[in-house]
Every structure is written in structure tokens, then in C-alpha cells.
Design brief:
heterodimer; A: Rossmann fold; Luciferase, domain 3; GMP Synthetase, Chain A, domain 3; five-stranded antiparallel β-sheet; 18 helices; B: 4 helices; about 0% strand
């Protein structure tokens, strides 16, 4: 039994040292190179480590350097916290205030952005940090001091108050999940994964650790290419990709582009997806063009090690026949609870809750937020068992499969990105001249509509530019409605129903 | 109309930019919010059809195409 996720890298580097582990636009890095770079980085981090668990913030552009940095942090017995290189500065400031990182890894291009907020944290430039010596004794000692319930990573997700929440995941959850990935999809050394998920989103855990455990090669799809889905089948063909785990938005784009029918993909075996609902229409296009692939609908949330349910879609689904999210993965327990915290019967709608080894340890430095959603399993009164309340609504079908029904609150998904509408509202209130703000999701156009109460007459693009210091690009509203005053309900709250009926539901 | 002007006017029209003085040939279309990520698909489709060229996945991977000038540069190489 392994205690740390970095042992997956050690095993792979012993078994297949010279095989390419990860590859980006610049080229590939072998398992041995990855391990040795990570050990150099780990050695460097340990020199500045002052004791206890101190997260390592990784702020680097999408590349193999990010993976080296993750593994380097693990060699120093600390969890890593990845953030996007183009993170808005105000968000970076809030995030660092919450994370209190011990050390930061970045590159020359982003150094000036990080330095003002670094505080006491040591800041390392990636290139320098991987060029030193390896202290084998020090890194071995550090790795052996880890136990599997220690945190492996902290991934930040949108928070409704405007402060991102740092989801803290233990090694054990990721180790168990990697086993599940390898067994379920029969990954091995011949597997070639095309990674689409950003490394600061939990969906990349599938690629990184499923890949390491299987000695597979992970090709990092360039971001520009993800934006033009009609070109992705050519990429899969030329790179002889055998497995993908992509967000449905990208799969829909590929299906709609027509590129699947002009490019056969004989090597592709596994097509998995999660992050939002995959529509039957586009899934059927994939199946028609590539009937021999295994199609897997996965469900997960950042608060669990990537994925907790799966459904192998082995038949076409038509029109309104809902695609199930299926059954629990082996290391997880799925409960659907009603308002009285009792188990729902088949067909009865309730809140989806998750237990098992992959459940997060909580939100980093936020005990109150943690207590609200990580609770004692109410069905189990005999011993302590934590479960996570997802806020998602679901039911069990007659044949025992879980069907996803939607959200209980104001969290939405836009192109697979999880967004709390409250975070956008909090950002809008930072723009000069805004009195109040309300963000709503338009399900038909799949975009966020932002209503602001202001005497100013904002240009939508300029308003988005004003929001950019506070929220990432994927949270920017698709439409802006400026009103002198927002309508209020009798008890003085913003009247969301009226706004929705007037401006979104074809009023 | 030359290549640059054709692309510039198409983007101006399609993305409702109007006579915004910030919209120059060298401004980053995505960072500055003139074009969203879905717009990239439309721009690639437009230049492929208008200039009868193919922008391959390799071009997208290896060449920056974030400004009007950069897009025009890639098109000019292909014609």
C-alpha cells in the first residue's frame, strides 16, 4: 500500500524510465526525467521548509513544468495548490491570504505578478529550482514521513461570497481513484491520454495519476487547439491517442464541427466525460462515428478526488431519455438524502451526498464553510463517518442507477466551469458606480446574464474589462443589463424572479 | 481590400466592436475581451473559407493567432 501519490511516479520511473510520461508543445519528458527534476525541486523546497504542512503554490502556464512542480512539492512532503497563470491579481491576493503558502513556484514572466502578494513565502523560479542537486536522503525522508490521510493538493473553486474555497484532498483518495481509473478502463503502458482539463481543475487528476499508475503517456493538448474543436480529431489521430477524459462542451464542439466523420480514429478506445451534462444528440454522433469506443459518463465534484460515480453508456440514448451518472466508484459511497436526512427511495428526489476515501479533508483555512457541507453521515449513528453534501439533486432509478437532476442553489456550470453566481455579483460591486448586482444563468443560451443597478451607461466589453481584475475569464458574463435600479421584493431583496421573467424567459 | 483589412473588418462586424479606438491590429483580441473563446472557431472558419486555405491543428498549436496582425501573418504564409 502506498502512502504518497509521488510513489506512483517512483514506480513508473523504475519500470519504464525512458518512456515519455508527459508531452507538451515543446516536447516530452520521460518518467526518469520527471522524477529527477521533481527530486531536485523537492530538495530545493526542503531547504526552505520550516516545518509542518505548508502548501506550495504553483503558478505556471500549462506545460510539463506544472507536473514537475506538483511532484516536487510532494517530494517535499507538502501539498501543491495550482492556480491559472492568468489569474486576476485581486483573486490571487485573496487566494494567497487564505492559502498562506510556505513556498511559491512560478516563472520569470509571472514573477512580478506574484511578488507583491508573496509575504513570507519563498518564491522560486522553475528553471532555477530544477537545476540544483538532489539530496536523496532528504527527499526519501520527507516522502516516508507522509501518511495517506495527509493532503496531496488544494484546488480552489468558486465561492459564493467572492472568496475562493480551497478544497483539500488526501493522498488516499487520489491513490484509490487512480486504481479505479486503471482497472475500469484497462489502462496500460500502451495507453496515450490527451489531457484537455486544466491542471488547476480536478478533472486533470484522472489524466495525471491514472497515467502515472499505468505508465501511460499523457499528451497535453495546447490551449489554442481546445478553442477550435474542428481540429481536435486531427490531433487525436496524429498523436495516436487511445483515451480521452474531456468536458462535454469540448466533445459537443467536436461533434457539431462534423470533423469526426472525415477523420477516423482507429486507436481511440476510451471516451470519458464529466463536468456537465452530456447531451444525447452529440453523444450519439460520437457513437455513430466511433462505435467501438467505450463511452463513460462520470460524475464528480472538486470536494472528492475527481470522480465518484460512473456509467458505461453501452447503448444509444434518444431525446429525453436521461443519461444516468450511474453507480458509485469502488472507493466511494453515494447517498441520496431527503429533507429529513433519510434515504430516498427509488424515484424520490433528494440531495446527492458522497462518502469514502476520496472525500476532501475540508476547505483549507475555512472551518465554518467546511462544517456546513462536510457532515456526519446521518444514516450511521454508530461511528464517525464524514460525507460531503454536494448540493446536487438526484434520484435512484428503478434499476438502481443515479440520475442527476440539477442544482439546489445558485451554483451553475458554464462550459464545464463551476461558478457561484455570488462571486460574480461580488466582483460587479467592486466596479465604480455599481449600486447593486444580480447574476443569473440563461440555460437556453448557456451564458451568464449580469444585471447591475447603476446610473452609468456601461459598454458591456468595457464592463467585462473592469471585472477582469477580480474574476477569471470563464466567469465573465455573456450579457450585461444595466438598469437605473434593480427591482426588489417586498422584503428588500433583489427580485430575481422578475429579472428572470423580464429579461431571460423571452419577456 | 488586403488580408489584414479583410480580417479586421470581419472581426469588427461580427463581434460588434464598432469604432472602439482600442481595437487595433496588435491588440490581443481574447485578453481584451473583443472576442470570446467561441469566437476563435468563427474566425478560423472565416479565414479558411475567405482565403481558400486550411488552418491545421499544427498551425494553431505552433503559431500565435491572438491579434489581427498575427492572424493575417498566418494567412499570408498560406496563400
Amino acid at each position: 500500500m502506498l502512502n504518497s501519490c509521488v510513489k506512483l511516479l517512483e514506480q513508473a520511473a523504475n519500470r519504464r524510465p525512458d518512456k515519455i510520461a508527459f508531452e507538451d508543445e515543446r516536447g516530452g519528458i520521460t518518467f526518469k526525467e520527471l522524477r529527477d527534476h521533481a527530486k531536485r525541486l523537492g530538495t530545493r523546497l526542503l531547504k526552505r521548509h520550516t516545518g509542518g504542512i505548508q502548501p506550495v503554490l504553483v503558478l505556471l502556464p500549462r506545460s510539463t513544468d506544472v507536473i514537475v512542480s506538483f511532484m516536487g512539492a510532494l517530494y517535499s512532503a507538502n501539498p501543491y495548490a495550482p492556480v491559472e497563470a492568468d489569474i486576476p491579481e485581486a483573486r490571487l491576493a485573496k487566494l494567497i491570504e487564505n492559502l498562506q503558502p510556505g513556498q511559491i513556484i512560478t516563472d520569470a514572466e509571472h514573477l512580478a505578478k506574484v511578488t507583491p502578494y508573496a509575504g513570507d513565502a519563498a518564491v522560486h523560479l522553475f528553471g532555477e529550482a530544477v537545476s540544483g542537486e538532489i539530496d536523496e536522503g532528504a527527499v526519501a525522508g520527507a516522502v516516508n514521513s507522509v501518511i495517506d490521510t495527509d493532503p496531496v493538493y488544494i484546488i480552489y473553486t468558486s465561492g459564493s461570497t467572492g472568496i475562493p474555497k480551497g478544497v483539500t484532498i488526501p493522498h488516499r483518495g487520489v491513490l484509490d481513484f487512480a486504481e479505479w481509473v486503471k482497472e475500469t478502463f484497462r489502462f496500460d503502458e500502451d495507453t496515450v491520454l490527451a489531457n484537455q482539463a486544466a491542471f488547476y481543475f480536478d478533472n486533470s487528476i484522472f489524466d495525471i495519476y491514472g497515467g502515472l499508475l499505468s505508465c501511460a503517456t499523457v499528451k497535453i493538448v495546447p490551449q489554442r487547439l481546445v478553442m477550435v474543436p474542428s481540429k481536435l480529431p486531427d490531433y487525436l489521430f496524429e498523436n495516436e491517442v487511445t483515451a480521452i477524459f474531456w468536458v462535454p462542451t469540448v466533445m459537443i464542439g467536436v461533434a457539431n464541427s462534423g470533423a469526426l466523420s472525415s477523420r477516423k480514429l482507429p486507436k481511440l478506445k476510451t471516451v470519458a466525460f464529466a463536468g456537465e451534462v452530456m447531451p444525447n444528440l452529440q453523444l450519439n454522433i460520437w457513437r455513430r462515428e466511433h462505435p467501438d469506443c467505450v463511452y463513460a459518463n462520470l460524475y464528480g465534484t472538486t470536494e472528492i478526488s475527481d470522480v465518484c460515480t460512473y456509467y458505461i453508456a453501452d447503448r444509444p440514448f434518444e431525446d429525453n431519455d436521461p443519461l444516468p451518472i450511474g453507480i458509485a466508484c469502488e472507493n466511494t459511497r453515494m447517498l441520496i438524502l431527503n429533507e429529513q436526512n433519510k434515504l430516498c427511495g427509488p424515484g424520490e428526489q433528494g440531495e446527492l451526498c458522497v462518502g469514502g476515501s476520496g472525500v476532501a479533508l475540508g476547505y483549507w483555512n475555512a472551518p465554518e464553510l467546511t462544517e456546513k457541507v462536510f457532515i456526519q453521515n446521518p444514516i450511521n449513528t454508530r461511528y464517525g463517518e464524514r460525507i460531503y453534501r454536494t448540493g446536487d439533486l438526484a434520484l435512484y432509478s428503478e434499476d438502481g442507477l443515479i440520475l442527476f437532476l440539477g442544482r439546489r442553489d445558485s451554483q451553475v456550470k458554464v462550459r464545464g466551469n463551476r461558478i457561484e453566481l455570488g462571486e460574480i455579483e461580488a466582483a460587479a460591486l467592486c466596479v465604480e458606480g455599481v449600486g447593486n448586482a444580480c447574476a443569473l444563468f440563461d440555460p437556453e443560451k448557456q451564458e451568464i446574464v449580469l444585471f447591475v443597478g447603476s446610473a452609468a451607461d456601461y459598454n458591456p466589453r468595457k464592463f467585462n474589462l473592469a471585472l477582469k481584475p477580480y474574476i477569471p475569464n470563464y466567469m465573465l458574463p455573456g450579457r450585461l443589463v444595466t438598469l437605473r435600479e434593480l427591482p426588489l421584493t417586498a422584503n428588500g431583496k433583489i427580485d430575481r424572479v422578475t429579472l428572470r421573467d423580464t429579461f431571460i424567459n423571452g419577456g | 481590400m488586403d488580408i489584414t483589412a479583410t480580417i479586421r473588418e470581419y472581426i469588427r462586424e461580427t463581434f460588434g466592436i464598432g469604432d472602439d479606438p482600442d481595437f487595433t491590429d496588435d491588440i490581443h483580441l481574447f485578453d481584451y475581451g473583443f472576442v470570446d473563446s467561441l469566437g476563435a472557431i468563427e474566425i478560423v472558419a472565416f479565414v479558411e473559407e475567405t482565403f481558400s486555405i486550411e488552418i491545421t491543428q499544427r498551425d494553431l498549436t505552433l503559431k500565435p493567432m491572438n491579434t489581427v496582425a498575427e492572424i493575417a501573418g498566418v494567412v499570408a504564409e498560406k496563400i
